[in-house]
Amino acid sequence: MMQDTPKIDKSALPSVAIDGARIRTVREGKKLTQLYVANVVGVTTDTISRWENNRYPSIKRDNAEKLAGALEVTLEEILRQDEPEPDPEVAEGPDTSKPRRWTLLLLALIPVLALLIFVASRLLVGAPKALRWAPHFAAPGEVVPVQIKITRTAEESNGFILKEHLPSGWHLVSAQPGNAAVDHDGSIVKWLVPAGQGPVTVSYTVQLPANLPSGKSGTLRGEVVLHEGETNRTEPVAGSTGIQVGAYHWADSNGDGRIDDDEIMPAYYLCEDMKGIGLDWKTIEAIWSGKGYRWDAKGGFQVLK
């Protein structure tokens, strides 16, 4: 007697198979550039292009999860679907006069599943999705950008509060929109986002303490606060959380001591989008034009000619 082949639990796999065509369709449908997605995931635009063209049919699971977060979909929506295996019982022509046990069980579960879907849909209404981008690296004393993109559907028109918790000693420099409120010790920044439809982008710059030791990481944490009836409900901000402190410019996403062609365009778009809130584009452009850079505590960033 043949035994059933055990199903593989995809959640336990270190690598997963992705659907490149589906990834491209979702990205273009949401009007996201390869540069933006690459910046959020922490890879190059060439890598995103190879993924979309199925050059790498399997990738690391953590990269796939970051990719799904950047595209604002679940991981399952970008995974390649396995072809259904033929049912040997069907091939042999089963006796259809007797309903199978699993069919009866499924029919019994339909009302329960319908109720669960209804309850979940009610809970999700009014819950916008917030995704944070932050640089991988930053030098002590440097001013770095952080951007949060919040999406909401036509049903999600209520206003909400966005809160960002900064690492100890880090302080807000400037923000867009400029209605940010800061608590007494500067560790929490809040925005009141009015009711409306469509996506919202909140950008801010934060300065690291000048005496931070290299190798230390700062963790960003945030949440969206929704008012429902007599109570408040919070939804966490997803995306980037940690910034590693070291002798690296924030635009140097791979920490190799230079800003190359793959890194200059995301930095340019970000500086244009966050113009007027403290970013030093001239230094970024000078490093890109030179052979690299060196950083020290006294002189800051020095361009290598």
From TrEMBL:
GO terms for molecular function: DNA binding. This is Transcriptional regulator. It comes from Geomonas limicola. Residues 23-78 form the HTH cro/C1-type domain. Signal peptide: none annotated. It comes from the Bacteria. Pfam families: HTH_3. The chain crosses the membrane at residues 104-125. Gene3D superfamilies: lambda repressor-like DNA-binding domains (1.10.260.40). Coiled coil: none annotated. Keywords: DNA-binding, Membrane, Transmembrane, Transmembrane helix. CDD domains: HTH_XRE. PANTHER family: HTH-TYPE TRANSCRIPTIONAL REGULATOR XRE (PTHR46558:SF11), TRACRIPTIONAL REGULATORY PROTEIN-RELATED-RELATED (PTHR46558).
